[in-house]
């Protein structure tokens, strides 16, 4: 039996109301993470060996590059390695290493990094950072989540368009809104976008948004989305400032 992302979010909100139930739930999630980690490890070893073997064959016999299926074989292997890497990120997305840091400084660095990536493109990036407090969280995982959303925003825009970021503090929570003028998401797809391996992209793995959701839920926050085809997409994240996080639950 499997749960949808919405069901998992509701279940976690229920158990978070009771400390003992929350601890048991986190222990269950950790046991599932360990099983997925073992699967990744067992698959990674032979794939790495296979990749090395193909590289060795190509170096010793350059003529294989002209073989009919050689490029396809290498591309398929590269995709499997990428999928495994994404699955590993998904597996570790709710394992946090929390620290206390300035969220304003964190966002300023992120904005500068993303703005630089938009230079010399047809995408206009604007941002508004209001007063933001110190927060307890995992800055590496939060950066990963936000960059995932920025990446999706850029990939949804074909030609010229814009991405807008706003971050503010209200009612003991940090709010982050990322809006784009991209192609938008259909109502049917909206129901599935946080489901692992669901993707509408030809080369996508369907793990980017589930990773985002896992990271935000691990911070006891929320992530919501509003979109219509042809009218762009808006993601909004809320993060409690002091959520009482702990490292990898045992």
How are the SSEs ordered, and which strands pair?
Elements: H1 5-15, H2 19-60, H3 70-91, E1 99-102, H4 103-118, E2 123-129, E3 134-137, H5 139-155, E4 161-170, E5 173-180, H6 187-190, H7 208-218, E6 222-227, E7 233-240
Parallel strand pairs: 2-4
Antiparallel strand pairs: 1-3, 4-5, 5-7, 6-7
Rounded to an integer in angstroms, the radius of gyration calculated over CA atoms is: 20 Å
Order of strands, widest sheet: 2-4-5-7-6
Name the shape in a single word: globular
User: What amount of the residues lies in strands?
Assistant: 15-25%
State the separation between the terminal residues, measured CA to CA.
23 Å
- Structural class of the helices, strands and pairings? alpha+beta
Order of helices and strands: HHHEHEEHEEHHEE
Q: How many strand units?
A: 7
Q: Bin the helical content.
A: 40-55%
Mean pLDDT: 83
Per DSSP, the total helix count is 7
Largest sheet report = 5 strands, mixed
Low-confidence stretches: none
Task: Please explain how this structure is put together.
The structure is a single chain. The protein has about 250 residues and is an alpha+beta fold. It has 7 helices and 7 strands. Strands 2-4-5-7-6 form a 5-stranded mixed sheet, with helices on one face. Strands 1-3 form a two-stranded antiparallel sheet. Helix 5 (about 140-155) runs antiparallel to helix 7 (about 210-220). The longest helix is centred in the first third of the chain and has 42 residues, at about 20-60. It is globular and about 65 Å long. The two termini are about 25 Å apart.
């Amino acid at each position: 039996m499997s749960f949808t992302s919405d069901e998992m979010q509701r279940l976690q909100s229920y158990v978070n109301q009771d400390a003992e139930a929350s601890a048991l739930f986190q222990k269950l999630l950790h046991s599932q993470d360990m099983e997925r980690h073992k699967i990744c490890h067992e698959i990674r070893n032979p794939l790495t060996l296979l990749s090395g073997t193909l590289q060795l064959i190509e170096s010793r016999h350059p003529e294989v590059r002209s073989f009919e299926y050689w490029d396809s074989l290498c591309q398929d292997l590269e995709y499997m390695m990428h999928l495994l890497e994404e699955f590993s990120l998904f597996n570790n997305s709710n394992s946090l290493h929390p620290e206390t840091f300035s969220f304003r400084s964190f966002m300023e660095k992120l904005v500068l990094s993303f703005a630089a990536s938009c230079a010399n493109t047809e995408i206009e990036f604007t941002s508004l950072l209001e007063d933001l407090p110190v927060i307890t969280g995992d800055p590496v995982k939060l950066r990963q989540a936000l960059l995932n959303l920025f990446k999706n925003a850029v990939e949804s825009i074909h030609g010229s368009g814009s991405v807008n970021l706003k971050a503010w503090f209200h009612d003991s929570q940090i709010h982050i809104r990322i809006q784009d003028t991209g192609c938008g998401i259909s109502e049917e797809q909206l129901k599935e976008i946080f489901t692992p391996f669901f993707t509408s992209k030809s080369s996508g793995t369907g793990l980017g948004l589930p990773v985002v959701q896992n990271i935000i839920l691990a911070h006891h926050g929320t992530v919501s989305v509003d979109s219509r085809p042809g009218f762009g997409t808006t993601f909004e994240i809320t993060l409690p400032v002091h959520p009482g996080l702990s490292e990898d639950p045992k």
